Amino acid sequence: MTKNKITLRALLRLLLLAVLLSLIIYLSYEFGIIEFFLNEEKLKNFIKSLGPFGFIGFVLIQAFQVVSAPIPGEVTGLLGGYLYGSLGGIILSTIGLTLGSILAFILGRKFGRPFVERVVDKAILGKFDYLLHHKGAFLVFFLFLLPGFPKDYLSYFLGLSRLSLLEFTVIAGVGRLLGTVLLSIGGSYLRHHEYEKFFSLAGIAIVFMLIVWLFKEKIERLLRIWHIHKYKNEKRNKKHSNSTI
Fold it and tell me: What residue ranges do the domains of the chain occupy?
C-alpha cells in the first residue's frame, strides 16, 4: 500500500512537472523569449539596460540557455566577450554555464529517467547510456571538452549517473572552459573591431570542429569501447581481490 502511494506521488509530481515545462515552453515561444535569446542585438540592449547589474543578468542568461538546451550558447558566449572583454566574459560565462549545468544535473537526478527522457533526445540517451553503468569521470570530462557534443543535454542525462554533484560541477566548469575562452576572445575582437583576428580565430575553430564532426562517430565508438573495457577490467580486478582475501 505504501509502495503504491509513493509511486502515485512520484507520477503526480512528474505529471505536474511535465505540464509546467510544457507551459514554460509554450509561453517562451508565445511571448518571443526564444527569439529574444537567438537575437544578439536584443540581448545586448537588454543587458546594457540593466546598468551596473548587467553582469548578473548576463550570468542568468547563460544559465538559462543551458537549462533551455535548444538555445545555442555561441551567441551568448560571443556577447560576453563583446560586453565584458576576454577575461570578464570568460569568468561570467563560466559562472553562468556552470550554474545552468548544475541546475540541469539536479533536475535530472531529482525527477529521474522519465523526466530526462522528455527533455533529452532519445538518440542521445541511447548513444551515451553506457555512462550510467560506471562513473567514468575522465570520459565525461573529455566529452565536455570536445566541441560539437551535446553538453547541455548531457547535464540532464548525467543526473542519472553515479557522479556526485561536486564531481559533475568540476567537470562541467572546467570542461566547458575551452569553448568559453574561444568565444569570449572572439567577442572581444569584435568589440575592438579586430575583424582579421576574429575571422582567423573563427577559421581555426571551424576547422577543428569540422575534424571532430567528421570523426565524431569513430570518437564516440572508441570512447564507448574504452569505457566498457575499463569497467570490465575494474570489475574483474575487484572480483580477483575479493577471491584472494
Answer: 58-244
